[in-house]
């Protein structure tokens, strides 16, 4: 993925996980209609996006705790 203006700081990581960094980066790589997305970047950036209306946050946090 291209280097974002925010870099590896909190702003750059948040942009990469939430929306892929925009049209010039990885936004085409996101599926915005899915209940759960696990995002793992080439540079080690990782995160999880989920729809709280469909899946409970407790379930997601337990799953991520188990994975980590």
TrEMBL record:
Q: Which GO terms describe its biological process?
A: carnitine metabolic process, CoA-linked
- Domain Choline/carnitine acyltransferase per the UniProt entry, residue ranges: 19-67
Kindly give the InterPro entries that the UniProt entry links to this protein: Carn_acyl_trans (IPR000542), Cho/carn_acyl_trans (IPR039551), Cho/carn_acyl_trans_2 (IPR042231)
Q: Which gene encodes it?
A: Crat_1
Looking up Pfam families in the UniProt record yields: Carn_acyltransf
Kinase as a keyword of this entry, yes or no, is no
Q: Organism's domain of life?
A: Eukaryota
Q: What is this protein called?
A: CACP acetyltransferase
Keywords associated with the record: Acyltransferase, Transferase
Report the GO molecular function annotations.
Answer: carnitine O-acetyltransferase activity
Instruction: Give Gene Ontology CC terms.
Output: peroxisome
């Amino acid at each position: 993925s291209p280097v974002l203006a925010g870099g590896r700081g909190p702003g750059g990581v948040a942009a990469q996980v939430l929306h892929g960094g925009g049209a010039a980066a990885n936004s085409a790589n996101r599926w915005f209609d899915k209940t759960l997305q696990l995002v793992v970047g080439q540079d080690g950036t990782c995160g999880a996006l989920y729809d709280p209306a469909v899946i409970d946050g407790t379930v997601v946090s337990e799953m991520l705790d188990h994975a980590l």
